[in-house]
Design a protein that fits this description.
Structural class: alpha/beta
Largest sheet: 12 strands, mixed
EC number: 1.1.1.262
CATH topology of the largest domain: Isopropylmalate Dehydrogenase
Mean pLDDT: 93
Low-confidence stretches: 328-348
Helix content: 25-40%
CATH superfamily of the largest domain: Isopropylmalate Dehydrogenase
Subunit structure: Homodimer.
InterPro entries: PdxA (IPR037510), PdxA_fam (IPR005255)
Keywords: Cobalt, Cytoplasm, Magnesium, Metal-binding, NAD, NADP, Oxidoreductase, Pyridoxine biosynthesis, Zinc
CATH architecture of the largest domain: 3-Layer(aba) Sandwich
Order of helices and strands: EHEHEEHEHHEEHHEHEHEHEEH
Number of domains: 2
Bound molecules: nicotinamide-adenine-dinucleotide, 4-hydroxy-L-threonine-5-monophosphate
Protein name: 4-hydroxythreonine-4-phosphate dehydrogenase
């Protein structure tokens, strides 16, 4: 059987991404890994991790086996040689070119999915290019409405707003934007995670979910009316829940995913309990994209000490989703560990 071709972008050249890709290549992952980055950058990164990897230019030919340590490369030259820990805006175009190649390649069917290593958003902005994240970049590239979701084996969290200054969050939460987000989340929990009737907990925006309007009105004016309308359609929506207690065990048992109103309302929960096992996914794209849950870790870049677990989890999640796409009956990646679905199997 031909191995699925996973595009893996290295992200910020001065961050830990290239080293993590070398470590990913060293694992026995059953995928044809195609690193989209600068070839020499990978060689230097592997040396920093004391790893031997074998690189071959990607010719797109099908592959049935991959020896651990071997990696195909789609060469995208750096603008300037990397100095670990010191991002250089001269590499902004390089980073964006890797993302564009990945998105185009997924759309054209050259890659089954893309897995992204972390990039430094500031370095791209410092090159004069407005950029807020992979999620927004891929959404714009695909002309799609998307939802950012981070998932560990124990918890799935989606975000109503992503990379926005906190002061801009309330205005960005409208009935229209929330409805769009909830519909994408609902559809993708069914399609990608095989949860037939997803139970979604929606967090309030304000402390204590607004305390009946005494601590903010967004719940009364926006969130509650929308949830009532979607419930009338049959969606199983819980909340708005106060964010401070939404993650206690008794609440967790009630839902399959949480929709948080903003980035730092829920991601600290996931990152503090499962930093090494959480995967970032973009829901709503016409292709599969997964990613690490951490950043460029500039303090570790060049040391070979960065933990590759999240990148390995992201690659495994991408492979499960690719398998799901070609499978009629399936279970959710990680859902089965929580006893939520049938074991992944192909229909006869
Ligand atoms: N997917 C992405 O592209 C992505 C995700 C998150 C953050 N970022 C970006 O990364 C940059 C740095 O962000 P930050 O400093 O807030 O967070 P960070 O995740 O880079 O670092 C936070 C802490 O976690 C540690 N850490 C991170 N990854 C680790 C790993 N694999 N193994 C061991 N320790 C690890 C770091 O050493 C640091 O102490 C920012 O530009 C941010 O926007 C990018
Ligand atoms: N919000 C993500 C996190 O905290 O892990 C991160 O910034 C990456 O986002 P993109 O995948 O959009 O780059």
């Amino acid at each position: 059987m031909t191995l699925p071709r996973l595009a893996v972008t290295a992200g910020e050249p001065a961050g830990v991404g290239p080293e993590l890709i070398a470590q990913l290549a060293a694992t026995p992952l059953a995928a044809d890994l195609v690193a989209i980055t600068d070839r020499d950058l990978l060689v230097r990164a592997a040396a920093r991790c004391d790893l031997r990897i074998t690189l071959a230019d990607d010719d797109g030919s099908p592959r049935e086996q991959r020896t651990p340590g071997s990696l195909r490369v789609r060469h995208v030259p750096l603008g300037a040689e990397e100095i670990p820990g010191r991002p250089d805006p001269r590499n902004a175009d390089h980073v964006l070119a890797t993302l564009t190649e990945a998105a185009n390649g997924c759309t054209a069917g050259r890659y089954a999915a893309v897995v992204t290593a972390p990039l430094q958003k500031a370095a791209i902005n410092e090159a004069g290019i407005r950029f807020s994240g992979h999620t927004e970049f891929f959404a714009e590239h695909a002309h799609a409405n998307v939802v950012m979701m981070l998932a560990s084996p124990e918890l799935r969290v989606a975000l109503a707003t992503t990379h926005l200054p906190l002061g801009a969050v309330p205005a960005a939460i409208t009935r229209t934007s929330l409805e769009r987000t909830l519909r994408i989340l609902h559809a993708e929990l069914r399609g990608k995670f095989d949860i037939a009737a997803p139970r979604i907990a929606v967090l309030g925006l304000n402390p204590h979910a607004g305390e009946s309007g005494h601590l903010g009105r967004e719940e009364l004016d926006t969130i509650i009316p929308l949830l009532d309308r979607l419930r009338a359609e049959g969606m199983m929506l819980i909340g708005p829940l106060p964010a401070d207690t939404a993650f206690v065990p008794a609440q967790r048992a009630r839902y399959d995913a949480v929709l948080a109103m903003y980035h730092d309302q829920a991601l600290p929960v996931l990152k503090s309990e499962a930093f090494d096992r959480t995967v970032n996914l973009t829901l709503g794209l016409p292709f599969i994209r997964t990613s690490v849950d951490h950043g460029t870790a500039l303090d570790l870049a060049g040391t070979g000490r960065a933990d590759p677990s999240s990148l390995i989890a992201a690659a495994n999640m991408a492979l499960e989703l690719v398998a799901r796409r070609g499978t009629h009956l399936s279970s959710s990646p990680w859902g089965e560990e929580r006893g939520e679905g049938p074991i992944l199997r192909k229909t006869p």
